[in-house]
Amino acid sequence: MSYGITAYLLDTEQLKLVLGSGNEEYAESFKNLFSEQIEILDERFEDDDDGLLMDDAITGLIHGKFEHNAKYAYALEIICMGIGSPLYPLHLTQLSLRWLHSFKELRELGNDEGSLHGLIPMAGDFPGIGCIDRDAIEEKITLATNAIKDTEDDNAQECYYEYISWLERAKEKHLALVTFLY
Q1: 118: alpha, beta or left, given left = phi > 0 and alpha = psi -120 to 50?
Q2: Alpha-carbon gap, residue 76 to 72, rounded angstroms
Q3: Radius of gyration (Cα) for the chain, nearest Å?
Q4: Mean pLDDT value across the chain
């Protein structure tokens, strides 16, 4: 099985203001903007026994209520789509977990919630969620740049270069990098 990473540049403070705000306008806005994605996800989860629809998961996050399951993690990604800018991978796709976890600098993608710890749903399985806060970006760039020098694996180097490009964009815009591992 292979995995990939989708990332969003966003202001985590703005995300924190949305999550738990109780603002129904936010919930309705996300539901309207991303109705097609919500419908696709509801179809994907139609055999689940919990009866939770994606609209309910989005509303739950807006009201600060969530469970640690995949639906809330997908709902969080929809909110990130609404307030952030997506970064779609070219190289950080079709990865095996063994390969991905063999490179410690990439391991945190979809696996370390940073300043969002306790504020977001962790699915327990997939998608995995990661957050690299803006104050950690420079350090991550340095670590990944050094890691490139330590590997001769061309695929790993391409992944590191892509990761660094995401970090540099986040640094340039003074934003965090929120990632979802599928």
Answers
A1: left
A2: 6
A3: 16
A4: 87
Tell me the CB-side half-sphere exposure of residue 5, using CA atoms within 13 A. 26
Average pLDDT over residues 158-167: 93
**59 in the Ramachandran plot: left (φ > 0), alpha (ψ -120 to 50) or beta?**
alpha
What's the whole-model pTM score? 0.89
- For the chain, list the strands marked E by DSSP: 5-10, 85-87, 128-132, 176-181
Domain spans of the chain, in order of start: 5-181
φ, ψ of residue 166 in degrees (nearest 5) = -65, -45
CB 108 within 8 A of CB 170: no
Band of residue 141 on the pLDDT scale cut at 50, 70, 90: very high
